[in-house]
Amino acid sequence: MESYDKPFGNYEGLEISDDLHFLIDYVQEAGNYAVSQQTSAVGERKSDRTLVTGTDKMNHRTLQQRTRRKWGSTAAIHGEEGKHLKPGEHALLVCADELDGTEEYGATHRDPVIGQLIKLGEPLPPGAVEIKDSERSSCVVAGVFRHGFLTSVAMYNPFTDELL
Questions:
Q1: pLDDT tier at 3 (50, 70, 90 boundaries)?
Q2: What are phi and psi of 156, to 5 degrees?
């Protein structure tokens, strides 16, 4: 266990496990990358009609690289943009939502009447309300399962710099 030197939820100075330290580093790196790419994020619709961006895909590649570097090439990884695995089938499973709230992430404004999100480059209706970063809930979430049980989880909202 090591002590984490930044504020951590309500537990400043909390001693954290190696797994949790790994997750914190990943969610912060992926979240900060998402912020840096937001104005150039290009998205497409998956078969389930949800939005996926290059940021989602790059964050998944980062998760794969970091996980394999730490636990080896056979480490099980469940990602929204990758394979869908079941925790109970693996001694160790790292899972993530590489960018939770992609629709909001790609939006610049909200329609004041119907609340619909308006993406960068789309026409703005009268009275469109700009989405401020402080109001965004898009985040990166990751967890570690050991023998089917969630043992560590971290979530980071890079727009509000909140780490849980």
A1: very low
A2: -135, 125
User: How far from 18 is each of 33, 70, 116, CA to CA, in Å?
Assistant: 23, 10, 41
Residue 31 predicted with pLDDT over 60: yes
- Select from 36, 153, 47 the least CA-distant residue to 105: 36
pTM, rounded to two decimals: 0.80
Task: Decide if 149 contacts 99 (C-beta within 8 A).
Answer: no
Closest CA to 21 of 146, 142, 158: 142
Characterize 136-161 residue by residue with b for buried, 16 or more Cβ atoms within 10 angstroms of its Cβ, and e for exposed: bebbbbbbbbeeeeeebbbbbbbbee
Distance CA 1, CA 13 (A): 12
